[in-house]
Amino acid sequence: MKLFMVHVGFYDDEVGEGIYESHINIFVAAGNPKSAKKKIMNMDKFRDKKMHIDGIKEINNVDDYEVHLIKNPEQKKAKVYSYDESKKL
Q1: Which residues, 6 or more positions from 43, have their beta carbon under 8 angstroms from its beta carbon?
Q2: N or C: which terminal CB in the chain sees fewer CB atoms within 10 Å?
Q3: What sign does the dihedral 71-75-81-83 (CA atoms) show?
């Protein structure tokens, strides 16, 4: 499995009456880019917000470190540092 970042765009009627295109990155584990695309397109939030894919990037390394995915069925929530917490770091 490889790590892919899928850059998606969408128009949200609740933001600026839908005139502005919003973007988010969704990370997904898949064997290849075609599988990553299929996974993203099957997500409820992708369909509900009528998203489209602007690009797919395979993530192989970050800051001179290789990325290796290890299957772990125990989904642990990652720590998210809030705005205020981030300022204090």
Answers
A1: 26
A2: C
A3: positive
Which positions ≥6 away from 1 have C-beta within 8 Å?
29, 30, 31, 69, 71
Reference 30, options 41, 19, 20; nearest CA is 41
Domain 2-66 listed as CATH 3.40.50: no
SS (H, E, C) 41-57: HCCHHHHHCCCEEEEEE
End-to-end CA distance of the chain: 33
C-alpha distances (whole Å) from 13 to each of 20, 22, 42, 50, 73 are 9, 11, 22, 11, 36
